[in-house]
# Entry
Amino acid sequence: MKANDPNLISLAHLTRSPVVRSAEVSAMVVTDRTGVLIESSGEIDGETAGAVYAVAAGDLDRLGEQLGLGPFQRASITGPTSACIVAIHEDGVMAMQLDPRKPIAAMERKLDGVLRR
# Structure
């Protein structure tokens, strides 16, 4: 992507949405589809995490196509110390880390609303 690419602007706009900036989100990463970091916040190595999220989203996208599910939109991953929502938006990948003890479904609905799905 080039610096004047309109998708960069909408991805940057997404990082400023109230959903992403809410107290439930402990860290956030936005990259392009190749894993190039656009923005990150919170206690996270944005470049490393962003690259991993981008590869995972690409793999899930290909998996969905192969299984006839259609393109990847969003996935939630929960572990003992953190939970994460990974979503594809236009030409970018967004990941938010959350507290795994709190309900994730409400945050997924809020994110879908921001992404207008």
Notes: Residues 6-115 form a domain with the Beta-Lactamase fold (CATH 3.30.450.30).
